[in-house]
Amino acid sequence: MDQKDLKELQELVEFLKASGIAEFEMERPDLKVGLKFVGTAAPSSGIDAAQLAALMSASRGSAPAVTPMAAAPVAAAAAPAAPAADPHEGAHIVKSPIVGTFYASPSPDAPAFVQEGDTVSVGKVLCIVEAMKLMNEIESDAAGKIVKVFVTPGQPVEYGQPLFAIK
Q: CB within 8 A of 120, min separation 6: which ones?
């Protein structure tokens, strides 16, 4: 694997961590990579260049591919020994009802629908999730104060991924 491929793979891992994607597989004619992050969120410590290079060089040896199980020890090593206290415990979590792209405002030059610290009522539009060129307004299903926005504009979101915490 050359340096360009290694850099692309490192960027992909960082993107997956930032997006909170728990499992990923990629296959090319000469390479197959599978990553699975253990726990409900992606690990905070990433795969460093040496670990990634070792995984990638293993795929060039006698075995034709790196399987998802080969990446599991790396993810298991990154798991915390004791679970940290959830800072949003007791908050209502608004989750994405669909897979798509998150937008905080109706257009790039418009202000965000809501920000951390805003008070919202039931039915208030919180954001837009674009799916297949359709703009879907996501409304609040609880009243309260926005204490956390979990995603950034333009970020891809998955079904069930937390978007907002409301207390």
A: 114, 126, 140, 143, 144, 145, 146, 166
